[in-house]
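Task: encode each sequence below as C-alpha cells.

Item 1
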Amino acid sequence: MEPITLTTTIARPREEVFEYLADVANHSEFTDHCMVDWHLTREDSYGHGAGARFRVKSRFDRFSYGDITLTELTPPERIVATGRGGRFNRIRTYSTWTLEEVGPSETKVTFQTRSEPALKSDELMEKLLRLHNSTTRCHKRALERLRSILESGEDRGERTTLSGGARKPASGFRL
C-alpha cells in the first residue's frame, strides 16, 4: 500500500505528546473507533519493545488482527512502530510519528504509515477491499481524537491491559 501521511497540530508541549504516544496502552483511546480488542504483548507498555495486538474493524476482512511494536524512540521527536497483520501475519506494517515544536506549547504531529504485502494475493486483497481509503479515514479520525484528548484532558477511559490478568506476585494475584 502506498504510504499515508497525515498531519495535525496539538496545543500541548512536545514532551507531553511524546510521553503519551510512547505508552502503547494509550493508543486504544484514540483508535478505538477502527481498532478494537487491544491487548498488550508484554507487561511494560512504555518504551522500546512495548507492543499490542488488536483487531481492525474492516468490512469483508476475515484476517483482521494486527499488532504493533515500538522499535525506535528518539525523545521527544520521533516514534517508529513496526507490526504485522493480515493472513498468517505476513503483511508487514510501518508507522512513524514525528513531533515538531511549533511554539512554546504547540506540537505538529506527522503520522505516516505503510504496509508491505508479502504476496501478490495480499496486494490484490488490499486493492479489492480499498484498504488505502479506509486506513486513511481511520488514522485521520485517530489524529483528531488524539488532539482532542490531549488538548481537553477529557476522560480517557480504560487503558489497555495485559491478557490473562496479573503476572507479578505483587500485582494483586492471591492464591
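Item 2
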Amino acid sequence: MTDSLQSANNYQSPSPEQILIEQILQGNTSLFDQLITQYRNQVYRFILKYMNDPARAEDLAQDTFIAAYEKLNTFEGNAKFSTWLLGIARNKVLNDINRAGKRRSQMVSDDILQEHHSLEKDPLEEMAKKQVFSALKKAIDDLDGDIKDVLILVSLEGLSYDEVSGMLKIPVGTVKSKLFRARTVLKEKMKKQRLS
C-alpha cells in the first residue's frame, strides 16, 4: 500500500465540534455560545463537586468559558473538547482554593443536591438514604486532593483513564492506582462511619 493510500485510510473527518471550533477561530465568534450552551451545566456541576458555594461556582464556570475562548486556538482535538474544558475548570478551582488560603475544598452541601421526594416514598427509607449520601459526600470531601481528583473525574464525571491521564499529566497506570486507592480509602471511611 502506498503512503498516500495509508494516509487517506488514516484520515478521520473532523467532528461537528471541531468544525464549529474552526469556524469560531476563523472569526464567527458568536458560535461560541453554542459551546457554552452545550457544556454550561456540566462545567457548573463539576465545579460544585469541589466547593460549597453555588455563586462562586457560577463565577468559576464563567471564568472557565472565558479562558476556553481565549485559549481556543490551543485546542488540538487530541482529547474530547469536554475533557479539555474540564481541565480548565479544574485549574480554575485549584487556583481559587489556593488563593483562598484557609478555605477548604468541600463537596456541595445537602441543600443543593437534595432530590425532590414524592409523597409515596417511605420517609424512613428516604432518611436513611440521605444519611448515607451525606456520609459518602463527607468521605469524598475528606480524601487527599490527588486521589479525590481522580475519583471525581473517573467515577463521577465518567471520563476514561486516557482522558484523565491527559488532563492530569500522569500515566494511565497511575490513574488506575490512584482510583483504586481512592475507592479503598472511601470504603474504609464508610465502614468506620457505619460502625460509629
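Check on item 2: The chain has two domains: 14-106, 116-196. Confidence is low (pLDDT under 50) at residues 4-8, 102-120.
End of task.
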